[in-house]
Amino acid sequence: MGMNARMWISIGLTTAILLVDQASKIWIKTNMMLGEHFNVAGEWFQIYFIENNGMAFGMELGGEWGKLALTLFRLVAVAGILYILRGMLKSNATRIGALAALSLILAGALGNIIDSVFYGPLFGYERWFHGRVVDMLYFPLWQGFLPDWVPIWGGDYFIFFRPVFNVADTAISTGVAMLLVFQRRYFPPDAPAASPTETNYTTSPDG
């Protein structure tokens, strides 16, 4: 598969995930009140509108400086992902699965960066780089009191799965899981190194 085909696969997947992520967040912001929720498939799949200061699955990094540091870290991470993607796009040895996984991670990171950077001034509650990330996907698959014999949490009320997340979080988690599970397939140890024409084609006599 040529470089242009790989590039368009990456751009298409990243754009599609980003559009779905932002469309869902903007719909939630403009149609629901914070804390409002409704069932999609019984009580085990709900749309539950919450906001957090930027980490995945409803977790937060506290304080004003923590929020800014997290946003800046995301920007640096995206720059790193783009650098790696650039190299992958140039190499004919790149597996499509690896390219898709990294594109998913890129789309998820960009989706949450948009919230952090732009949502504060866009929705009129904070300044640039201090926006809150919108979460809405909630899957409380089981809830109830744990038996007393369970260590530490015995007798406590427990919800599985408690975190509330968004499409961007899902994309990041899926991409990371793909890289971990299919690592040997995507990056086989005996894979041939990229040829000079693949990595340094600009120095060829033909220009």
Helices, strands, pairings?
Elements: H1 3-31, E1 37-41, E2 45-52, H2 64-90, H3 96-122, E3 133-138, E4 142-145, E5 157-160, E6 164-165, H4 167-181, H5 183-186, H6 196-199
Antiparallel strand pairs: 1-2, 2-3, 3-6, 4-5
Helix pairs in contact: 1-3, 2-3, 3-4
Q: Give the helix proportion (percent range).
A: 40-55%
Overall, the morphology is globular
Task: Output the radius of gyration.
Answer: 21 Å
* Major sheet summary line: 4 strands, antiparallel
Structural class: alpha+beta
Can you walk through the features of this model?
Helices cover about 50% and strands about 15% of the residues. The chain has one domain. The strands form two sheets. Strands 1-2-3-6 form a four-stranded antiparallel beta sheet. The chain has a two-stranded antiparallel sheet with strand order 4-5. It is α+β, with helices and mostly antiparallel strands and about 210 residues long. Strand 1 and strand 2 form a beta hairpin. It is built from six helices and six strands; from the N terminus they run αββααββββααα.
